[in-house]
Amino acid sequence: MSFTTKDVVLKEDRPKSLLLQKHSDYLASYGLNKDDYEYCMTEYLRMSGIYWSLTAMELMDQSSRMPKEEIIEFIKSCQDSESGGISASINHDPHMLYTLSAVQVLAMYDRLDAIDVEGVVRFVASMQQEDGSFYGDKWGEVDTRFSFCAVMCLSLLHRMEDINVNKAVDFVLSCMNFDGGFGSKPGSESHAGLIYCCVGTLSICKRMDALHADELAWWLCERQLPSGGLNGRPEKLPDLCYSWWVMSSLSMLNRIHWVDKKSLEQFILACQDAETGGFSDRPGDITDPFHTLFGLAGLSLLGNTSIKAVNPTYCMPQETIDKLKLEPQILHI
Amino acid sequence: MSDCSDHDPNWVPYKERPEWNDVTPIPENDGPNPVVVIAHSEKFEDVYGYFRSVLQRNEKSKRALHLTKDAVELNPANYTVWQYRRDILKTLNTNLQSEFAYVESVIKQSPKNYQVWHHRRVLVEWLQDASLELELTKDALEQDPKNYHAWQHRQWVIKTFGLYSQEMEFVDILITEDVRNNSAWNQRYFVLNNHLGWSDLNVQKEICYTLEKIKFVKNNESAWNYLRGILLHDKRGLCGNAVVSSFCEDLYKNKCRSPYLLAFIIDMCDEAIKKDETNCLYNPERAIELCEALASKYDKIRTKYWNYLLERFRKCRGEQIINSNGLMDEIE
């Protein structure tokens, strides 16, 4: 039975303790490395890159190592004055994904005043469609990721009243599948990353009651493999980023204790690179800021006290969420 | 994704092309104090320098269209390049048939890229022509039967253009190739739900199909989930269907202890309790026994979950005893 399972085997010489200093050094120098091939490839998602790095640094209490004022200037110059949206880099087109990343970064810096907030609200609201769904940009791609971007962004700005929240919730619920999970659109296969987006949307809109909590949480727990790692769909390999997407969803459902925490922690720690610092998708692969954030955030949810508490809905430090007086819903069991 | 380094011996940089000497490339602008200094390969720098310039001049020309091709080749995930390419296609009124072939080639190289699939969808919408899409997605799914982008695109064209007629056969081929392909099971549900409908006959047919597949591989999460999904459309519920319950009991008697089988029987017990229709097969005691077996032996990694259910069943067993003693009113 188990021989057909797609999984990885953790090696004996894997990292077993948390290498915080290494990760901080890794992120501090990431992007300063002029010969970095990866770097030229990531211009189109730079804004999210900054969010991943800064949040990871915040969780390690090392954010002073990031160039704050320059980041804020960069964000300002990425806002499109016409649509109000924010792009990944200067002269790129505005998009929901990067608008959210920019707002998250400014919220952590307590500098939301740096951008034209009205513009952001206008942009996000203009992306909502008749059926409650959201476009990602003017080209009309619809996806539950963008619903989550919209409500997260507007709640951080305390401007939820500028969209039709009921319709936004209805659209997300129309993406619920027969297994209790969610996909990107009605009928699309359940996928842990998209489940996080949909559960997160319901958490912000305080409609967690609409979920089939036990059924969904069981599906999420089924993602855990013998190695301790989590996959995103049945019969797929484990990937560190699902530690976040599955665990944060389970946290919002108040059922995080249903996974085997010890073996998951071992898997996450094994995804560290002891030489370069940072986390990768699977043990032995190349590290990147995206997986580094989700590795640290996952460990925080598991209760590691050397990392600051992370909010499962927003994937930002809990202290930021408290400061903004936001109370995303967590289900009572 | 193609390499940034300059391998092609015939490559002529834009700055050396006479037809481009009227354009001054724009280097990447990182704002007043660059957050990060970006070092691109020479080729990347060259192409994107001209791309930025064309974008700023808002030049919509044949040569600009060609330039976006080079820019895409260097980074197919750059959504701004794709948007600009569409703007040019519109303005120039280009023959979109050749664009179809071009996108297909990019999809073949980068099958997991959001932008390129979206570009494809916009083209199909513009031309209202979906005649190539089933073949295109079939090819992509042959490479990776779980490619989420390909499935999304396929569902969209099927729904938009009503192309359901051959889909069950296609799904059947995929499930036959890999009975654990969750995407294919999901597509099966999609066709039933949006096209064939949940008539009693269809539900029974699907149940038989699924049970055959479970007989073949018992430890298959996807098939068991699908079985639950179709039984949502059977008025008799999980345990009212004699074919399903005798199938499960046979497996159990034959010593099958797949966690999915045990979990399914637990759900049958749960339903019987909720409907107040417990019997010698489906009752709290059996559910408790199965939860214990899963927690301690067959699915240890999810011990906490099974213990949670166990507690729930213990509670309702307690209530049942109270009920049968007629003490409910007094307790309340």
Automatic annotation (TrEMBL), chain A:
Catalytic activity as recorded in UniProt: geranylgeranyl diphosphate + L-cysteinyl-[protein] = S-geranylgeranyl-L-cysteinyl-[protein] + diphosphate
EC assignment: 2.5.1.60
Protein name: Geranylgeranyl transferase type-2 subunit beta
The record's free-text note on cofactor binding: Binds 1 zinc ion per subunit.
Function per UniProt: Catalyzes the transfer of a geranylgeranyl moiety from geranylgeranyl diphosphate to both cysteines of proteins with the C-terminal sequence -XXCC, -XCXC and -CCXX. Catalyzes the transfer of a geranylgeranyl moiety from geranylgeranyl diphosphate to both cysteines of Rab proteins with the C-terminal sequence -XXCC, -XCXC and -CCXX, such as RAB1A, RAB3A, RAB5A and RAB7A.
Residue ranges of domain Prenyltransferase alpha-alpha toroid in the record: 18-316
UniProt enzyme class: transferase
GO molecular function: metal ion binding; Rab geranylgeranyltransferase activity
Similarity section: Belongs to the protein prenyltransferase subunit beta family.
Cofactor annotation: Zn(2+)
From TrEMBL, chain B:
SUPFAM superfamilies noted in UniProt: Protein prenylyltransferase
Highest taxon, organism lineage: Eukaryota
Top-level class of the enzyme under EC nomenclature: transferase
InterPro entries from the UniProt entry: Prenyl_trans_a (IPR002088)
Cofactor names: Mg(2+)
PROSITE patterns assigned: PFTA
Keyword vocabulary terms for this entry: Magnesium, Prenyltransferase, Repeat, Transferase
A cellular component annotation (GO) from this entry: protein farnesyltransferase complex
Gene3D superfamilies named in the record: Protein prenylyltransferase (1.25.40.120)
Family: Belongs to the protein prenyltransferase subunit alpha family.
Protein name: Protein farnesyltransferase/geranylgeranyltransferase type-1 subunit alpha
Lineage: Eukaryota, Metazoa, Ecdysozoa, Arthropoda, Hexapoda
